[in-house]
Design a protein that fits this description.
By secondary structure, the protein is mainly alpha-helical. Helices cover 69% and strands 0% of the residues.
């Protein structure tokens, strides 16, 4: 019996193989022969990877399984690579080792252990301190419980080896990517959409570089959220609450989704049943979160954790858009950086805009994901700090609709790595920021323009 050719006649096997080789070589050079300061090499290789990904998904018409095999092959290229664009994994290994020794990673910062002569209990402590940098070492850990548990498991598997930790964590992240594929496919079929849409995320170079390559746990947070959402629309509230709580306690960002669940219950059921559903779902969600955070509870935990998280709103600034415009006006009128004032006002503005989106969007499951994507877009456009891996969450949600601006964003956000080009210091280019966000703004306007009738009906109706 002869199997059907999964590739159309006008797109030969040889062409696909050549593209796969080009993509593999791009990722190989990106991860083994590119450092963060090699900006032009980084951009060139990333651009090639994006072009190959677009052609393979959009033009080759490969089957679902063939695309999945390609996604796995690309990920295996990174297995032996030390992350070259981010040093965060040094802190991950540090926190994981503390937990294995029964030490709460939220109580003291890294410098404390060196000042008190306790660093001898940490494997390769000097290397980890040098790798993570003084800024990271001087602050308390801001990685929530689920992240900490994953770091601990990876550190346990590592057997005191930094490379062992990298490989262990990388394999865990790949496993969560596979979970995303499994449940995202179920959701896309449920929404009567093409399951291959999920590859716009899972094959996206940003996903490969920042999750598989740089070991950021956004992939875990996203996968757990998708699983929790799947169980939510299947009316399995306890399972939904469990996985959404795990998503929240991985990176906290999933908290923004919770108001959408309230509207979902209120619009889907009559008031009495909706009230019971909200109470039941909320009870289990809070219980699961309480259990996860209880492992790390200490009288210092709340103050240290909130202080560390608060730095992202009132002190740190990187690759921002609206904030930099506001900051410029602030300098003109006050003569100093108004980031602390902005950090207090920004959450209020975000909440107001979230409520507007929440009131306007419909409550069908697919529209819930679209609403969440726009809420995250608003949040990041208002944020003072936007690292490339932050864009992964709205990117993953975009596979459930037809918007393309997040895919464009996933490429132009790489421009932010130019900031590390000069002698290791962070130096941001105003021109590159203008190009990055100018392209993004045009992509958003084009997307909205294609749906002009829909936006008028949604936002201009009485």
């Amino acid at each position: 019996m002869r199997l059907a050719n999964p590739i159309p006649n006008n797109f030969s096997y040889n062409t696909v193989i050549v593209l796969a080789i080009i993509g593999s070589l791009s990722y190989g050079f990106l991860t083994y022969f590119t450092v963060r300061s090699d900006f032009f090499q980084l951009i060139l290789l990333t651009a090639i990877s994006f072009l190959v990904t677009y052609v393979v998904i959009e033009k080759s018409k490969l089957s679902f399984n063939h695309l999945l095999y390609l996604a796995l092959i690309y990920r295996l290229i990174f297995i032996w690579a030390i992350p070259n664009l981010s040093q965060d994994f040094f802190r991950f290994f540090w926190d994981g080792q503390l937990i294995l020794q029964g030490i709460n990673p939220f109580i003291e910062n890294v410098n404390y252990y060196f000042n008190e002569g306790l660093d001898q209990n940490i494997t390769q402590a000097d290397i980890l301190l040098q790798g993570m940098g003084e800024l990271n070492a001087s602050h308390y850990s801001n990685y929530p419980p689920t992240s900490q548990f994953i770091y601990a498991v990876s550190a346990w598997l590592a057997k005191n080896s930094i490379m062992g930790f990298i490989i262990s964590l990388r394999l865990i992240l790949i496993s969560f990517d596979i979970l995303f594929v499994f449940f995202a496919k179920k959701l896309l079929i449920h929404f009567n959409k093409n399951p291959k849409n999920l590859f716009w995320y899972i094959l996206n170079p940003l996903c490969l570089i920042e999750v598989t390559g740089n070991l950021h746990l956004e992939g875990v947070m996203i996968s757990l959220f998708i699983i929790g959402f799947y169980f939510l629309i299947k009316n399995q509230k306890i399972l939904s609450a469990l996985f959404l709580s795990l998503s929240i306690s991985t990176k906290l960002l999933s908290l923004i989704f919770l108001p959408i669940t309230l509207k979902y219950f209120l619009k889907t059921y009559k008031f009495k049943r909706a009230s019971k559903g909200i109470f039941y779902f909320g009870f289990w969600l809070l219980l699961f979160l309480a259990i996860q955070f209880a492992f790390f509870y200490d009288e210092k935990f709340i103050s240290n954790f909130t202080e560390s998280v608060g730095l992202w709103f009132g002190k740190f600034e990187f690759n921002a858009s609206i904030f930099y415009v506001v900051r410029w006006f602030g300098y003109q009128h006050t003569g100093w950086n108004i980031i602390q004032t902005y950090g207090k006002i920004m959450p209020i503005i975000s909440i107001i805009l979230f409520l507007i989106l929440l009131l306007k969007f419909k409550t069908s499951p697919v529209k819930m994901l679209e609403c969440f994507m726009w809420m995250l877009t608003v949040y990041f456009l208002l944020s003072t700090t936007v690292h490339p891996w932050y864009i992964l969450f709205p990117l993953a949600l975009s596979v459930f609709n037809t918007y393309k601006y997040v895919y464009v964003w996933s490429f132009v956000v790489i421009f932010s790595y130019f900031s590390y080009k000069i002698s290791g210091d962070v130096f941001e280019s105003t021109w590159l920021l203008a190009i990055e966000y100018g392209i993004l703004l045009m992509a958003i306007m084009l997307d909205i323009g294609k749906r002009k009738t829909y936006f008028k009906a949604t936002f201009l109706s009485k």
